[in-house]
Amino acid sequence: MLCRTIVEVIQAGKPRITYGNVTVERVGELVQSIKTGKVLTDLAIVRHDEEAYCLNITPLKYAKEKYLRHFPASKNTASMIFLRTS
User: Fold this and answer.
1) CB atoms within 10 A of CB 33
2) Which residues pair with 8 in a beta bridge?
3) How far is the C-alpha of 49 from the C-alpha of 38, rounded, in Å?
């Protein structure tokens, strides 16, 4: 999938969401969805539940329990072979 414009959304207590193919026409809708806590599933590419950094031994985990009901069919980065760390 080729995505021309990528937007990363990081909110406290929620997983990081990567959106792709965000056009000027959809920016207002995306901003409103962020304010209301909803995910635009047609633009969402991946959900990041945690991240591991080279200099940090403990992975950074994002909260996800309540948020997943809005985004149940999302791909987690752990399931993407090109993003695996081990």
Assistant:
1) 20
2) 18
3) 16
C-alpha distances (whole Å) from 75 to each of 24, 27, 31, 35, 39 are 25, 22, 22, 22, 13
Q: Which two structure tokens, joined as six digits, stand for 47?
A: 């959900």
Structure tokens at 75: 């791909």
In sign, the C-alpha dihedral spanning 26, 28, 31, 32 is negative
C-alpha triplet 83, 64, 4: angle, nearest 5°: 45
Please write the tens of the pLDDT for every residue from 43-82: 999 888 877 666 656 666 666 555 555 555 555 655 555 4
Count other Cβ atoms within 10 Å, centred on residue 28: 9
Least confident window among 10-14, 30-34, 82-86: 82-86
